[in-house]
Amino acid sequence: MSTAARPVLVAAEQQDAAADMVVDQLNQRGVPVMRFDVAAFPQQLTLTGVHLSTDPGWDGVLDDGRRTARLKEVRAVYWRRPARPLIADAVPEPYALWAQDQADAAMLNILAALPGARWINNPHADRIASHKPQQLVAATRCGLRVPRSIITNDLDSAHRFANEVNGPLICKPILGGRLDVGGERRLMVATHRVDPGDFDDSIRTTAHYIQEAIPKAYEVRLIAVGGQVFGGKLTATSEAAGTDWRTDYAHIEYDTIAIPDDIAAAVRQFLASYGIAFGAFDFAVTHDGRWVFFENNPAGTWGWVENRTGLPIAAAHADYLSGAIA
Question: Crossing angle for the helix pair 132-141 and 261-274, nearest 10 degrees?
């Protein structure tokens, strides 16, 4: 079969603008696409995977009732934050949860076993790549500057760290996600400044991730995909945006910025160390021009960067998924 006829699978929620942008770019290249949400499995989406002892890979079909994809012909998978499988209401607990776990494992593990398929990104690698404490180790090994940090539930250790830094501190979540505060209300736990004078025994309630506050001239949301790097420059015009730009989008000025060669090389090395092709990196740039790595989200958002700056990020996704670039 010719390369042109091999499909790209796009697994994403229905209302995902970034997935829309990538699908549009793939369509412009004449690349066949099957887009689906894992939430449609197993009620509306059918998966049949077959492995024979004489065959080095899995074969079978993914079918949503309108389109089908032959598994052994899949050239790439864009795994863009799909929802989990949705089990029929007729299945009672605890069997519904068991069935959901079975469906989840079947979909992900069969697709992950497809030989030769490119991924952005394989979720098995994503899980490891998303661990923030380990990211600081990987970033340091790649030659990137990182903030001094502590994770602790010990009051004395937190005070010692504060004394060593002897400057402003921030506290941030170790694990991403939002708090469900009832109904449809979901609260984002933002990075926030902390005063060591306020530290007390409540620090023992959980692990706290505390860092030195880096003085910023501006921040960069660096998008890396398939070896290409793109810099979205974010200049805060309010204190809230300067601490966590996600809390005050109205006070951010957007621009593009060229990525220094050493930073680009370190980012590529960082991604290679995790075996992933995509990352949404957060950097601060200090007033004297030093780049400081905060974290990488291997499934991070980027559509707003392209929309605000015109950077061809969706095109880079399509180039990688179609095999146009290494």
Answer: 130
Helix axes 313-322, 17-28, angle to 10 degrees: 60
Q: Which CATH number covers residue 161?
A: 3.30.1490
pLDDT in tens, 62-74: 999 999 999 999 9
Same domain, 163 and 254: no
SS3 323: coil
In whole angstroms, give the CA distance from residue 45 to residue 85.
10
* Whether residue 278 sits in one domain with residue 247: yes
Q: Where are the beta strands (DSSP E) in 185-313?
A: 186-188, 192-194, 208-212, 218-225, 228-236, 252-256, 278-285, 291-297
Instruction: Specify whether 240 is located in the same domain as 206.
Output: no
CB 121 within 8 A of CB 111: no
pTM: 0.91
Residues counted in the chain: 326
